[in-house]
Amino acid sequence: MKIVIIYTLQTDGDYSLDNPKKFGCIKEDGYHYSGTVEIVSDKKSCCLMEARNFLYKFLCDGLHVSYTHAWLLKDFYDLIESLVNKIGHYKPDESGKYMCEESIGGNYSGTNFEILIIRTTGIATYTDGYLRAELL
Fold first, then answer.
1. Residues 80, 61 contacting (CB under 8 angstroms)
2. pTM
3. Cβ proximity of 108 and 66 under 8 Å
4. pLDDT tens digits, residue range 46-63?
5. What residues contact 39, with CB distance under 8 A and at least 6 apart?
């Protein structure tokens, strides 16, 4: 199984991402980030757990929200919780793929998360704290 998490952040200066590299992310300029993380395992349960753990680590260890915009914590919590629930209850199509997305609007339009889940065959490798794919 392979799970790809693709995200963009439009911070407007009200929040930031601590240690973007840890989250497979680059800071494009002062207010924009983009990231992609691939999680691969031949065990479905491990892959789903790693994706869930990545999202919660992103929320708890990665985001830094300004005290002037504390309500963003709830918006991000709701977004991450929704994605975790969708991952846990996904139903693949005939080709073995499933996609879901969530976003935050308003001043933060451009803050999006997309998750693609694909059934694959391959070998799982572990580097930098994340599983990486070596497809056969």
1. no
2. 0.83
3. no
4. 999 999 999 999 999 999
5. 2, 3, 4, 5, 47, 50, 51, 54, 130, 131
